[in-house]
From TrEMBL:
PANTHER family the UniProt entry points to: INTERPHOTORECEPTOR RETINOID-BINDING PROTEIN, RETINOL-BINDING PROTEIN 3
Annotated TM spans: 94-113
The species this protein was found in: Acidicapsa dinghuensis
Protein name: S41 family peptidase
EC number per UniProt: 3.4.-.-
Region listing for Disordered, in residue ranges: 130-190
Residue stretches making up the Tail specific protease domain: 285-477
Pfam families with a match to the protein in the record: Peptidase_S41 (PF03572)
GO molecular function terms noted in the UniProt entry: hydrolase activity
Domain of life where this protein originates: Bacteria
Record keywords, A-Z: Hydrolase, Membrane, Transmembrane, Transmembrane helix
Extent of the signal sequence: none
Length: 492
């Protein structure tokens, strides 16, 4: 509620001030609402805002350049303040505005704790955040990036905020913080019982595309291509190319096709969720989250089974590649128990990925010299090479890896590298085909974009497993993979 009132009151300022400082002002208020809790803190915030309005509104009109600012031509939802630059408001107007603000700030105090729920302010102050989707690689810890709010995105794209078309005027007002709600034009019942998809207003469409373009320009590893992509998208926006596209999965798929066709990069993807996309969860600055530690303790670090099969064949079933900081001792114990095996079978048929450092930890046991383990999400560094394990006897033993269509992400990384290095025989089904090599940036409740931020050269000179999976050396149904591996190991 407090954010909404603040956005309304911003309309008292000259239009030029709103365009330059409106988004940043809204962001500052949202940050204070997030950090300053309690009645006393909120009362102090109200007093600061009222004082600032009383001092800065007359000053801004005094220094504003005379120009005519017409009211938007489209119907608006909610209160509208029409202001002519160069003509300061009368004392009566200022007094009424002050009384209006005091009445609202003091009369709805108990609602102030819920000020962060307004969709427009949340979108206005949204910073591109890192989030990984799917059950694959664990979230990485990365430094905070500067925000790419609406103003920054539009500025970086060179957008023209004086376009006279009604649709563009709506889009500009939307980006400047106008307290509109999405205008559902059509809604049809979904045949599968899911919530009906709705076609949203043109201003929202243009805002979504501009935000995606801004994130691409800021985050995509190929800066030259990113600039061209952003300009191309902005040109289409100006030409109204997306105005008739339903703002749902249809728009997301169209943008994805265009981005991939322009770059040839299959990791670029625009995502739409008819529900609400989850917010990225802030990670602790150090250490491992306690819930993860408890989950690993309860599942024995996802090491389901370790045993010695007939003919002295070692067998280990791993359902993830856990963080060695938590599970290093368990992984060491499991691998050491297989040390005297004549061959080793890694069962990854139910493995849903995990940490790249966990993949490297297990890979260390399979080589007696440094070998590069390719990771499509990280640039090559000294940590990309295996390190021999003291006392290990498995480096020259035959290795078999069992896969299924559910084998994904980090498990695919393990299988892919061993196959390319000719260190293992892959048996079973083609894997899921998910590298998770892009970083997910949330645009708002419904849209996000996956952007590769690091360009990693594949040392094998071939495409990775994104979209195609790791093809086994011996293709059999997953249920039969262990039997085939045991027979091959016995023959060797």
């Amino acid at each position: 509620m407090l954010e909404r009132i603040f956005v309304w009151l911003l309309r008292l300022y000259p239009a030029a001030f709103q365009q330059v400082f409106g988004a940043e002002a809204a962001r500052l208020v949202r940050d204070r609402l997030r950090d300053e809790r309690g009645f006393a803190a909120r009362l102090r915030l109200c007093w600061d805002l009222l004082t600032d309005f009383a001092i800065s509104v007359p000053r801004e009109f005094r220094y504003a350049q005379p120009s005519l600012a017409g009211a938007p031509t489209q119907p608006m939802r909610g209160p509208v303040f029409a202001v002519l630059e160069g003509k300061p408001p009368t004392p009566t107007s200022l007094a009424l505005a002050g009384l209006f603000a005091i009445a609202f700030f003091t009369g709805v105090g108990y609602l102030m704790g819920h000020g962060g729920g307004h969709l427009m302010l949340r979108s206005l102050s949204m910073r591109p955040e890192r989030q990984l989707s799917g059950p694959g690689f664990a979230p990485e810890r990365a430094p905070q990036q500067p925000g790419m709010g609406v103003e920054a995105a539009n500025s970086s794209l060179g957008s023209d905020r004086t376009i006279a078309s009604p649709a563009q005027q709506q889009a500009d007002a939307y980006a400047a913080g106008e307290p509109w709600k999405r205008d559902a034009k059509t809604a049809t019942p979904a045949a599968n019982g899911q919530p009906a998809l709705v076609e949203m207003d043109t201003a929202y469409t243009r805002w979504v595309v501009a935000e995606i373009a801004g994130n691409l320009k800021y985050h995509y590893f190929d800066r030259a291509s990113a600039g061209q992509l952003a300009e191309s998208m902005q040109s289409r926006v100006t030409a109204g190319a997306y105005d008739s596209v339903p703002v749902d999965q249809t728009l997301a798929k169209l943008l994805t096709r265009q981005l991939r066709a322009s770059t040839g990069d299959m990791h670029l993807e625009v995502v739409y969720d008819a529900g609400i996309l989850p917010h990225p969860v802030a990670e602790p600055t150090a250490g491992v989250p306690e819930p993860y530690r408890r989950a690993m303790a309860a599942s024995h670090c996802t090491i389901e089974q370790v045993e010695t099969l007939p003919h002295n064949v070692g067998y280990i079933k791993l359902n993830s590649f856990p963080d060695p900081e938590v599970c290093g001792a368990s992984l060491t114990s499991a691998m050491s128990s297989l040390n005297h095996s004549s061959a080793v079978i890694f069962d990854l048929r139910d493995n849903l990925g995990g940490f790249p450092v966990g993949v490297m930890f297990v890979s260390n046991y399979l080589f007696n010299r440094p070998e590069m383990i390719f990771n499509p999400r990280e640039a090559v560094s000294s940590q990309s090479w295996t390190k021999p394990v003291a006392g290990n006897l498995l480096a020259d033993k035959p290795v078999y890896v069992l896969t299924s269509h559910k084998t994904i992400s980090g498990a695919e990384q393990f299988a892919y590298n061993l196959k390319m290095l000719k260190r293992a025989t892959i048996i079973g089904e083609t894997t899921a085909g998910a590298t998770h090599s892009a970083v997910f940036h949330r645009i708002d409740d419904h849209f996000g974009v996956a952007i590769p931020e690091v360009k990693v050269a594949n040392p094998y000179g071939k495409p990775d497993w994104e979209g195609v999976g790791v093809e086994p050396d011996i293709q059999v149904p997953a249920a039969d993979a262990l039997t085939v591996a045991e027979k091959l190991a016995a023959q060797r």
